[in-house]
Amino acid sequence: MKDKQRGFSLIEVMVSLVILVVGLIGIFNLHIVAKRGSFESYQQTLASYYAVDMINRMRLNRTQIAGYAGSYAGSLTAPAKSCDLAVGGNAVCTNNETRLWDLFQWEQSMNGAGEIRGELTTGGLDAPTACIQVSGTGDVLVVVTWRGLRPLSDGAANANSFVKSCGTTSKRRRIYSINTVII
């Protein structure tokens, strides 16, 4: 009578390991793609937050609305007077001082000054630039640009000239803009 063999041969084990490794590599790559997508989404969420934040600051200081217009990339210095109303604070600021403080705080938060690890800012957007356009009728266009992770296409390629001029032209430039009216 013939003996029946039991178990797996070495070749069968090697083939199954190769299949398992190929599957695991696919899963790890999928994880990396998901992390990148999550970071890109987070950056867009931050950009929308900063744009809406500036619009709200402008609504609260309507008399200075024209003074908010400009391009902001992190070069503002701290104003002489801090207009923060912390718990127990009693700073009284003029509308002009409030505008200067708003722009400074806005620029600092976009650059991640609120989250610092060692000497590096870890929060905020990657290489942000923000531009504000104000017309005489109260139309306000707030544009926030930043650098994305992957080169895809320039986010402002099909936009108007004001949006195109905001930030550095690049295949990694991302754009978020809001057009509103402040009366």
Automatic annotation (TrEMBL):
<dbReference type="InterPro" id="IPR012902">
    <property type="entry name" value="N_methyl_site"/>
</dbReference>
<keyword id="KW-0812">Transmembrane</keyword>
<keyword id="KW-1133">Transmembrane helix</keyword>
<feature type="transmembrane region" description="Helical">
    <location>
        <begin position="7"/>
        <end position="28"/>
    </location>
</feature>
<protein>
    <recommendedName>
        <fullName>Type IV pilus modification protein PilV</fullName>
    </recommendedName>
</protein>
<keyword id="KW-0472">Membrane</keyword>
<dbReference type="InterPro" id="IPR013362">
    <property type="entry name" value="Pilus_4_PilV"/>
</dbReference>
<dbReference type="Pfam" id="PF07963">
    <property type="entry name" value="N_methyl"/>
</dbReference>
